[in-house]
Amino acid sequence: MTTGHITVPALAETGYVVLDRYDQARDPEEWHDLEYTGWRSSGVTRFAPLTSYAGEIECNGFWNHTPPRADKDGVWIPSQVAHAPALVRRAQEPRAGVGRCRVIELQPNTYADAVYNLHQDDNNRLNPEGTGWVVRAFFNLTDDPDSLLLLRRDRFDPSTELRIPLPAGARVIVDTQHFWHAVWHRGDSPRYGLIVSWESGPELEAYIHEHHGVARVDSAPLDATTVEHAQRELHRRLEERRQAMAALGAAFVAPEG
Length: 257
What we know:
Number of domains: 2
Number of helices: 6
CATH architecture of the largest domain: Sandwich
Order of helices and strands: HEEEEHHEHEEEEEEHH
Distance between the termini: 47 Å
CATH superfamily of the largest domain: B-lactam Antibiotic, Isopenicillin N Synthase, Chain
CATH topology of the largest domain: Jelly Rolls
Helix content: 10-25%
Strand order of the largest sheet: 1-9-6-11-5-2
Oligomer: single chain
Radius of gyration: 19 Å
Number of strands: 11
């Protein structure tokens, strides 16, 4: 966690907490009624934003608007909220400040895909010191017990990886600015999850305590051969991308030479 901001003690030990599962079967499947839009992210994804910078159906970072601001004070999108009152209640339950809030639709992928797509978020760009550090909550909406949330301290070191299963009702809060993360979705149909940016503070701490958040869970096992293959594939794809970008750069500057 960072210094200079208000943080949550429950996240201080490991940077994540796993809460009690909630009964997702009692909630309506509201994500089917939302409007989705494409957005750059890890894996083959679409997003249905529930909040945005100004209440429009778009997913851009709040710092990319005028005037720019941190990932806080998201504006609820009326047309989306009308279709998803239960999801809105989930996002508002802690009474913590909400920034970006959206449903993700992720297509099935491989472990190598997920490792290649590991990324860190930039939640706290422009976030003033003395205010709450922004973290991310992940609610699994569909029942994907074989799918895994991957968290790594070091992108290139699989020994730092934690693999958290994602059955329906799973909820995890992560400091995603410090973890490299992605989801390995091993289903045969799209996975849906709710992602909420929450502002750290006593409200979020109380919510974590109320739902018995734990800072350490066992990592789902994975055989060494699969891990080694994914690491080789990661470096191969990165080198392939580097060469492609270099070729594009050379093609772009060549006419001026």
